[in-house]
TrEMBL record:
Entry keywords, A to Z: Signal
Organism phylogeny: Bacteria, Bacillati, Actinomycetota, Actinomycetes, Pseudonocardiales
Source organism: Lentzea albidocapillata
Signal among keywords: yes
Signal peptide: 1-20
The name this protein goes by in its record: Peptide/nickel transport system substrate-binding protein
Length: 547
């Protein structure tokens, strides 16, 4: 699930009608909050827009075959419903060994047929396949109780998504005429929790009587959906919410200082970034020297401190690689390539490329002044602050920038259709940098202006980049992948197809007053968000404070 602070903010701004009051905290209850507005009862675990998806409780009911730590993607996955998985050398097939003695919450045993069905349903019903469209060819339960899942193309870049797929009971879901519209009123999972109650504001799940491993220490989890970021922040500050994922502009004053001993937050970076996307079909932004010069004058420290309130991790590598998540992927030649403000260097690049700075106006080689319109939704306050910083920075090299706000719907449409000059947005993230770079520069995915793009929103067309992405995805070994990745990093540094501004956070706020065992920088066993699959890992590690 790719969820950013910006997405949470957008959801909050779009939501109306929910009480801003906090949920009361009963003894032994873990309270989770999100600023998502009123809830409609829908427990379908495949749909990110369902209550189960938007609040995250689907991951306490339904379990994956393995857990992947996207804050440290080079780490080995943690076995869960699968005890082992073996890939063929070409990454076109994986064989799972399924854990024994696991039961569904209705008492029936988990079988290999359930696991095979969980992949086959993604093939039969593409609308359920929100795991970046895994191209499952076949999924088969073998006579010895294992499961073989085959693909038409190598899945090295998707391998972590494949092994962390959610498992559902065949005896329930095979009877559903259309699982894409199924609200799943009585969820049956292998996880340690069951649905207890539902209202339009609060969902409560309770610990099962038995589970395939030691039961978690948390007897109940109460999920409350607040009307907006302000209400959610108030609930965090008062202690009504113990765990959340919400953008807090002045988090030290509004949250941490309310209980410094217990109010914590950790916003680590995964392998995704936020940045200034430029429409490379529009002159002069098709000029790499101009894009590089623009990047050279952007003050990322100001963006980190003022724009993103230190919640979005600082981005330092000119390759766009977030660190430390990307440490193992950096090409040797770019280990020390760091962003720094270099106005003089930017001017030299522009002069060499035929641009002229006349007074405080930069003119393109044809003599036309360089201007840029920067757009983003009106409610996205942190992005608009960043755009204002960028606007001031670009004046240092004579570029006149204007900022125009839109509704979120209008911006989404225009951005995807290419009706923009410059705009802030996030990238995809994954187990490797492939998804980030593919999102930015895959020429195979270019859509004509006016058609909706899913990636490569800047319509950047570089055959070398497209070839390197294909080589990486289909590489036979690590050496070939490293070679292709080095090419992509070189293009990112020298051609600047998108201007990186900050790392993409996968963070959360949480309280240690009643529960301890949360992931931290010192113990980064998983991303801390309550809406990500690793939320179950976190709950399994929590224990009462002082115990």
């Amino acid at each position: 699930m790719r969820r950013t602070v910006i997405v949470a903010l957008a959801l909050a701004l779009a939501a109306t009608g929910c009480s801003s009051g906090g949920a009361t905290k009963a003894a032994g209850v873990l309270t989770v909050g999100m600023p998502n507005g009123p809830l409609t009862e829908n427990h379908n675990p495949f749909l990110p827009t369902s209550a189960a998806g938007s609040l995250g409780y689907r991951y306490q009911i339904y379990e994956p075959l393995a857990f992947v730590n996207n804050t440290r993607p080079a780490q080995d996955p943690v076995p869960w419903l699968a005890t082992k998985w073996d890939w063929t050398p070409d990454y076109k097939k994986v064989t799972f060994t399924i854990r024994e003695n696991v039961k569904w919450s209705d008492g029936k045993p988990l079988t290999a047929a359930d696991v095979a069905f969980s992949y086959e349903i993604l093939k039969k019903w593409p609308a359920l396949n929100n795991r970046d469209s895994l191209k499952v060819e076949t999924a088969t339960a073998t006579p010895d109780g294992k499961v073989e899942v085959a693909f038409a193309s190598p899945q090295f870049v998707n391998r972590n998504k494949v092994i962390s797929a959610m498992v559902i009971p065949q005896h329930v879901w095979s009877t559903i005429p259309d699982p894409t519209t199924y609200t799943n009123p009585k969820p049956v999972g292998t996880g340690p929790y069951e649905l207890k109650s539902f209202t339009s504001q609060t969902v409560t799940i309770a610990r099962r009587a038995e589970y395939w491993q030691e039961l978690p220490k948390v007897p109940e989890i109460q999920y409350t959906s607040y009307n907006d970021n302000t209400a959610q922040t108030t609930a965090l500050a008062s202690g009504a919410t113990q765990w959340s994922y919400v953008f807090i502009p002045d988090y030290q004053k509004l949250y941490v200082d309310k209980d410094p001993a217990n109010h914590k937050l950790w916003f680590p970076a995964g392998l995704g970034i936020h940045g200034l996307w430029l429409n490379t079909t529009v002159a002069p932004f098709d000029n790499a020297a101009l894009r590089s010069a623009m990047s050279d004058v952007i003050d990322r420290e100001a963006i980190f401190v003022k724009g993103e309130a230190r919640l979005f991790p600082k981005l330092e590598s000119k390759t766009g690689m977030p660190l430390p998540a990307g440490d193992s992927f950096l090409a040797p030649e770019y280990k020390d390539a760091k962003f720094k403000i270099d106005v003089d260097g930017a001017k030299q690049k522009l002069t060499a490329a035929g641009f002229k700075l006349e007074g405080d106006v930069l003119k393109a080689p044809g003599g036309k002044p360089v201007t840029i319109e920067l757009t983003n939704p009106s409610g996205w306050s942190d992005y608009l602050t960043v755009l204002d910083i960028i606007k001031g920075d670009l004046k240092k090299i004579g570029i006149e920038a204007t900022v125009r706000t839109q509704t979120a719907d209008s911006w989404t449409t225009d951005f995807a259709n290419g009706s923009f000059q410059g705009s802030l947005r996030w990238t995809n993230t994954g187990a490797t940098p492939y998804e980030m770079y593919q999102n930015i520069m895959d020429g195979a995915e270019i859509k004509p202006m006016g058609q909706t793009a899913a990636v490569n929103f800047g319509r950047y067309n570089n055959p070398e980049a497209t070839a390197a992405l294909a080589e990486y995805a289909n590489a036979p070994d690590d050496a070939a992948r490293a070679k292709a990745l080095a090419v992509l990093q070189k293009i990112m540094v020298e051609q600047v197809p998108m201007i990186p501004t900050s790392a993409g956070p996968i963070g959360a706020e949480y309280s240690t007053k009643n529960w301890v065992g949360w992931p931290t920088e010192e113990d980064p066993y998983g991303p801390p968000q309550a809406t990500l699959p690793n939320a179950l890992q976190i709950v399994m590690k929590l224990k009462p404070a002082g115990s």
